[in-house]
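Q: What would this chain look like folded?
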Amino acid sequence: MPDRSRPDPALLTLLEGVSRSFYLSIRLLPPGLGRPVGLGYLLARASDTLADAPGAGRAERLALLDRFLGMVRGERPAEPIRLDAAETPQERQLLQALPACMGELQALDEADRADVLTVLGHITRGQRLDVERFGDASAANPASLADDGELDEYTYLVAGCVGEFWTRLGLRHVAGFATLPPPELMDLGKRYGMALQLVNVLRDEAQDLATGRRYLPAAREPWFARAREGLECGLRYSLALESRRMRVASALPALIGARTLALLRAAGPRAAHERIKVPRSEVRWLLLRVLLSLGSRARIAREFRDALGDNRPR
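A: My prediction, written as C-alpha coordinates:
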Protein backbone atom coordinates (compact mmCIF):
# COMPACT_ATOMS: atom_id res chain seq x y z
CA MET A 1 0.00 0.00 0.00
CA PRO A 2 1.54 3.40 -0.96
CA ASP A 3 2.61 5.79 1.78
CA ARG A 4 0.17 8.67 1.33
CA SER A 5 2.18 10.92 3.67
CA ARG A 6 4.99 11.15 1.09
CA PRO A 7 5.04 12.56 -2.46
CA ASP A 8 4.26 10.20 -5.31
CA PRO A 9 7.60 8.99 -6.78
CA ALA A 10 6.51 9.99 -10.30
CA LEU A 11 5.76 13.52 -9.12
CA LEU A 12 9.11 13.66 -7.33
CA THR A 13 10.74 12.85 -10.66
CA LEU A 14 8.84 15.73 -12.25
CA LEU A 15 9.94 17.99 -9.42
CA GLU A 16 13.58 17.07 -9.92
CA GLY A 17 13.23 17.91 -13.62
CA VAL A 18 11.84 21.41 -13.14
CA SER A 19 13.77 22.48 -10.02
CA ARG A 20 16.78 20.53 -8.78
CA SER A 21 17.49 22.85 -5.83
CA PHE A 22 13.90 22.76 -4.56
CA TYR A 23 13.87 18.99 -5.09
CA LEU A 24 16.80 18.72 -2.68
CA SER A 25 14.82 20.61 -0.02
CA ILE A 26 11.68 18.52 -0.54
CA ARG A 27 13.62 15.28 0.02
CA LEU A 28 14.56 16.53 3.48
CA LEU A 29 11.02 17.23 4.67
CA PRO A 30 9.38 14.91 7.21
CA PRO A 31 6.36 12.73 6.33
CA GLY A 32 3.19 14.75 5.94
CA LEU A 33 4.94 17.88 4.70
CA GLY A 34 6.70 16.78 1.52
CA ARG A 35 3.49 15.80 -0.25
CA PRO A 36 1.51 19.09 -0.03
CA VAL A 37 4.64 21.27 -0.37
CA GLY A 38 5.92 19.35 -3.40
CA LEU A 39 2.51 19.28 -5.06
CA GLY A 40 1.97 22.99 -4.41
CA TYR A 41 5.31 23.75 -6.04
CA LEU A 42 4.56 21.62 -9.11
CA LEU A 43 1.18 23.26 -9.64
CA ALA A 44 2.70 26.73 -9.22
CA ARG A 45 5.40 25.84 -11.72
CA ALA A 46 2.74 24.61 -14.18
CA SER A 47 0.80 27.88 -13.90
CA ASP A 48 4.03 29.84 -14.38
CA THR A 49 4.72 27.87 -17.56
CA LEU A 50 1.26 28.76 -18.88
CA ALA A 51 1.65 32.42 -17.91
CA ASP A 52 4.86 32.55 -19.98
CA ALA A 53 3.49 30.55 -22.94
CA PRO A 54 5.65 31.51 -25.96
CA GLY A 55 3.78 32.96 -28.90
CA ALA A 56 0.61 33.57 -26.85
CA GLY A 57 -0.80 37.07 -26.46
CA ARG A 58 -2.00 38.65 -23.25
CA ALA A 59 -5.62 37.52 -23.60
CA GLU A 60 -4.68 33.91 -24.33
CA ARG A 61 -2.30 33.72 -21.37
CA LEU A 62 -4.96 35.07 -19.04
CA ALA A 63 -7.41 32.50 -20.42
CA LEU A 64 -4.87 29.72 -19.83
CA LEU A 65 -4.46 30.80 -16.20
CA ASP A 66 -8.23 30.90 -15.72
CA ARG A 67 -8.56 27.43 -17.21
CA PHE A 68 -5.79 26.11 -14.95
CA LEU A 69 -7.33 27.65 -11.82
CA GLY A 70 -10.70 26.18 -12.75
CA MET A 71 -9.10 22.72 -12.81
CA VAL A 72 -7.42 23.31 -9.44
CA ARG A 73 -10.75 24.33 -7.91
CA GLY A 74 -12.53 21.33 -9.40
CA GLU A 75 -14.66 23.48 -11.70
CA ARG A 76 -13.21 22.04 -14.94
CA PRO A 77 -12.12 18.56 -16.04
CA ALA A 78 -8.50 17.67 -15.25
CA GLU A 79 -6.60 17.50 -18.53
CA PRO A 80 -3.28 18.54 -20.08
CA ILE A 81 -3.22 22.20 -21.12
CA ARG A 82 -1.44 23.80 -24.06
CA LEU A 83 1.53 21.41 -24.25
CA ASP A 84 3.27 23.71 -26.73
CA ALA A 85 3.50 26.30 -23.93
CA ALA A 86 6.40 24.30 -22.50
CA GLU A 87 9.89 25.50 -23.38
CA THR A 88 11.68 22.40 -22.05
CA PRO A 89 10.91 18.64 -22.15
CA GLN A 90 10.52 18.70 -18.34
CA GLU A 91 7.89 21.45 -18.51
CA ARG A 92 6.07 19.51 -21.23
CA GLN A 93 6.02 16.44 -18.99
CA LEU A 94 4.63 18.57 -16.17
CA LEU A 95 1.78 19.93 -18.30
CA GLN A 96 1.08 16.40 -19.52
CA ALA A 97 0.90 15.22 -15.90
CA LEU A 98 -1.67 17.81 -14.81
CA PRO A 99 -4.46 15.19 -14.45
CA ALA A 100 -2.22 13.17 -12.10
CA CYS A 101 -1.40 16.34 -10.14
CA MET A 102 -5.09 17.13 -9.78
CA GLY A 103 -5.69 13.59 -8.54
CA GLU A 104 -2.98 14.10 -5.91
CA LEU A 105 -4.60 17.38 -4.91
CA GLN A 106 -7.96 15.73 -4.33
CA ALA A 107 -6.27 12.99 -2.27
CA LEU A 108 -4.81 15.49 0.22
CA ASP A 109 -6.58 15.88 3.53
CA GLU A 110 -9.01 18.79 3.71
CA ALA A 111 -6.76 21.22 5.59
CA ASP A 112 -3.74 20.62 3.35
CA ARG A 113 -5.87 20.91 0.21
CA ALA A 114 -7.32 24.21 1.48
CA ASP A 115 -3.80 25.56 2.06
CA VAL A 116 -2.68 24.50 -1.43
CA LEU A 117 -5.74 26.19 -2.95
CA THR A 118 -5.06 29.38 -0.97
CA VAL A 119 -1.42 29.64 -2.00
CA LEU A 120 -2.22 28.86 -5.64
CA GLY A 121 -4.90 31.53 -5.58
CA HIS A 122 -2.30 34.10 -4.50
CA ILE A 123 0.30 32.88 -6.97
CA THR A 124 -2.01 32.87 -9.98
CA ARG A 125 -3.24 36.34 -9.02
CA GLY A 126 0.37 37.52 -9.08
CA GLN A 127 0.91 35.82 -12.44
CA ARG A 128 -2.23 37.46 -13.84
CA LEU A 129 -0.98 40.88 -12.72
CA ASP A 130 2.35 40.10 -14.37
CA VAL A 131 0.65 39.21 -17.67
CA GLU A 132 -1.59 42.28 -17.50
CA ARG A 133 1.40 44.57 -16.90
CA PHE A 134 3.91 42.91 -19.23
CA GLY A 135 1.89 40.67 -21.55
CA ASP A 136 2.60 42.73 -24.66
CA ALA A 137 6.02 44.05 -23.63
CA SER A 138 9.05 43.65 -25.87
CA ALA A 139 12.47 45.22 -26.27
CA ALA A 140 10.83 47.65 -28.72
CA ASN A 141 7.79 48.18 -26.47
CA PRO A 142 9.11 48.06 -22.87
CA ALA A 143 6.97 48.23 -19.72
CA SER A 144 7.88 48.96 -16.10
CA LEU A 145 6.35 48.55 -12.68
CA ALA A 146 5.07 51.88 -11.44
CA ASP A 147 6.54 51.98 -7.95
CA ASP A 148 7.93 50.04 -4.99
CA GLY A 149 4.43 49.05 -3.91
CA GLU A 150 3.82 47.14 -7.14
CA LEU A 151 7.09 45.23 -6.72
CA ASP A 152 6.24 44.41 -3.10
CA GLU A 153 2.79 43.24 -4.19
CA TYR A 154 4.30 41.03 -6.90
CA THR A 155 6.95 39.45 -4.66
CA TYR A 156 4.34 38.74 -1.97
CA LEU A 157 1.82 37.16 -4.32
CA VAL A 158 4.27 34.86 -6.10
CA ALA A 159 6.60 34.03 -3.19
CA GLY A 160 5.85 35.71 0.13
CA CYS A 161 2.62 33.75 0.40
CA VAL A 162 4.68 30.55 -0.02
CA GLY A 163 6.51 31.34 3.23
CA GLU A 164 3.14 31.60 4.95
CA PHE A 165 1.98 28.35 3.29
CA TRP A 166 5.09 26.49 4.45
CA THR A 167 4.62 27.85 8.00
CA ARG A 168 0.96 26.84 8.27
CA LEU A 169 1.79 23.32 7.16
CA GLY A 170 4.74 23.06 9.55
CA LEU A 171 2.74 24.27 12.53
CA ARG A 172 0.04 21.72 11.76
CA HIS A 173 2.19 18.71 10.91
CA VAL A 174 5.32 19.03 13.07
CA ALA A 175 5.08 18.94 16.86
CA GLY A 176 7.22 21.63 18.49
CA PHE A 177 7.79 23.15 15.05
CA ALA A 178 9.73 26.24 16.13
CA THR A 179 11.03 28.26 19.06
CA LEU A 180 9.35 31.45 17.86
CA PRO A 181 5.63 32.29 18.28
CA PRO A 182 3.49 31.61 15.19
CA PRO A 183 2.75 35.27 14.31
CA GLU A 184 6.47 36.14 14.28
CA LEU A 185 7.27 33.00 12.32
CA MET A 186 4.56 33.81 9.74
CA ASP A 187 5.97 37.31 9.26
CA LEU A 188 9.53 36.02 8.86
CA GLY A 189 8.33 33.37 6.39
CA LYS A 190 6.52 35.99 4.31
CA ARG A 191 9.53 38.32 4.21
CA TYR A 192 11.82 35.38 3.40
CA GLY A 193 9.72 34.36 0.41
CA MET A 194 9.56 37.93 -0.87
CA ALA A 195 13.35 38.19 -0.61
CA LEU A 196 13.88 35.00 -2.59
CA GLN A 197 11.74 36.38 -5.41
CA LEU A 198 13.59 39.69 -5.25
CA VAL A 199 16.87 37.79 -5.67
CA ASN A 200 15.33 36.20 -8.78
CA VAL A 201 14.39 39.66 -10.08
CA LEU A 202 17.94 40.93 -9.55
CA ARG A 203 19.45 37.81 -11.10
CA ASP A 204 17.16 37.87 -14.15
CA GLU A 205 17.27 41.62 -14.78
CA ALA A 206 19.23 41.33 -18.05
CA GLN A 207 16.95 38.61 -19.41
CA ASP A 208 13.82 40.55 -18.40
CA LEU A 209 15.06 43.81 -19.93
CA ALA A 210 15.73 41.98 -23.20
CA THR A 211 12.01 41.15 -23.34
CA GLY A 212 10.92 44.67 -22.37
CA ARG A 213 10.17 43.97 -18.70
CA ARG A 214 11.51 46.19 -15.95
CA TYR A 215 10.62 45.01 -12.44
CA LEU A 216 12.93 47.33 -10.49
CA PRO A 217 11.24 50.75 -10.25
CA ALA A 218 14.45 52.43 -8.98
CA ALA A 219 18.22 51.89 -8.79
CA ARG A 220 19.42 48.37 -8.01
CA GLU A 221 21.44 49.10 -4.84
CA PRO A 222 18.51 49.63 -2.42
CA TRP A 223 16.98 46.39 -3.67
CA PHE A 224 20.20 44.49 -2.91
CA ALA A 225 19.91 45.75 0.66
CA ARG A 226 16.21 44.80 0.77
CA ALA A 227 16.98 41.32 -0.54
CA ARG A 228 19.73 40.79 2.02
CA GLU A 229 17.47 41.94 4.84
CA GLY A 230 14.80 39.45 3.74
CA LEU A 231 17.31 36.61 3.46
CA GLU A 232 18.42 37.39 7.00
CA CYS A 233 14.76 36.95 7.98
CA GLY A 234 14.96 33.57 6.27
CA LEU A 235 18.03 32.68 8.30
CA ARG A 236 16.24 33.61 11.54
CA TYR A 237 13.26 31.55 10.41
CA SER A 238 15.40 28.51 9.66
CA LEU A 239 17.40 28.70 12.88
CA ALA A 240 14.14 28.80 14.86
CA LEU A 241 13.05 25.39 13.55
CA GLU A 242 13.52 22.49 15.96
CA SER A 243 13.68 19.67 13.41
CA ARG A 244 17.20 19.41 12.00
CA ARG A 245 15.90 18.19 8.63
CA MET A 246 13.40 21.04 8.44
CA ARG A 247 16.13 23.49 9.44
CA VAL A 248 18.35 22.35 6.56
CA ALA A 249 15.48 22.27 4.05
CA SER A 250 14.39 25.77 5.03
CA ALA A 251 17.91 27.24 5.15
CA LEU A 252 19.09 25.95 1.76
CA PRO A 253 17.22 28.58 -0.35
CA ALA A 254 18.59 31.37 1.90
CA LEU A 255 22.14 30.06 1.47
CA ILE A 256 21.74 29.85 -2.32
CA GLY A 257 20.13 33.30 -2.37
CA ALA A 258 22.97 34.78 -0.33
CA ARG A 259 25.54 33.26 -2.66
CA THR A 260 23.63 34.58 -5.68
CA LEU A 261 23.71 38.11 -4.25
CA ALA A 262 27.47 37.81 -3.73
CA LEU A 263 27.98 36.63 -7.31
CA LEU A 264 25.84 39.48 -8.66
CA ARG A 265 27.87 42.02 -6.73
CA ALA A 266 31.14 40.46 -7.89
CA ALA A 267 29.95 40.51 -11.52
CA GLY A 268 29.29 44.25 -11.35
CA PRO A 269 28.21 45.74 -14.70
CA ARG A 270 28.57 42.32 -16.34
CA ALA A 271 25.43 41.20 -14.47
CA ALA A 272 23.41 43.57 -16.67
CA HIS A 273 24.32 41.50 -19.73
CA GLU A 274 24.39 37.89 -18.56
CA ARG A 275 22.49 35.62 -16.19
CA ILE A 276 24.40 34.88 -12.99
CA LYS A 277 23.69 31.57 -11.31
CA VAL A 278 25.21 29.47 -8.51
CA PRO A 279 26.74 26.33 -10.09
CA ARG A 280 24.87 23.12 -9.32
CA SER A 281 28.05 21.50 -7.98
CA GLU A 282 28.45 24.35 -5.49
CA VAL A 283 24.86 23.88 -4.29
CA ARG A 284 25.48 20.17 -3.68
CA TRP A 285 28.69 20.81 -1.74
CA LEU A 286 26.90 23.44 0.31
CA LEU A 287 24.10 21.02 1.15
CA LEU A 288 26.59 18.27 2.01
CA ARG A 289 28.48 20.50 4.44
CA VAL A 290 25.28 21.46 6.26
CA LEU A 291 24.05 17.87 6.35
CA LEU A 292 27.36 16.64 7.75
CA SER A 293 26.95 19.16 10.56
CA LEU A 294 23.55 17.56 11.30
CA GLY A 295 21.84 20.87 10.68
CA SER A 296 23.93 22.72 13.26
CA ARG A 297 22.59 26.23 13.81
CA ALA A 298 26.13 27.58 14.13
CA ARG A 299 27.15 25.91 10.87
CA ILE A 300 24.14 27.26 8.97
CA ALA A 301 24.79 30.79 10.25
CA ARG A 302 28.46 30.52 9.26
CA GLU A 303 27.60 29.22 5.80
CA PHE A 304 25.21 32.15 5.36
CA ARG A 305 27.90 34.71 6.24
CA ASP A 306 30.40 32.93 4.01
CA ALA A 307 27.92 32.86 1.12
CA LEU A 308 27.48 36.63 1.43
CA GLY A 309 31.24 37.10 1.72
CA ASP A 310 30.57 38.62 5.13
CA ASN A 311 32.71 37.21 7.92
CA ARG A 312 32.23 40.06 10.30
CA PRO A 313 31.30 38.98 13.86
CA ARG A 314 27.66 39.47 14.76
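Strands lie at 143-144, 213-214.
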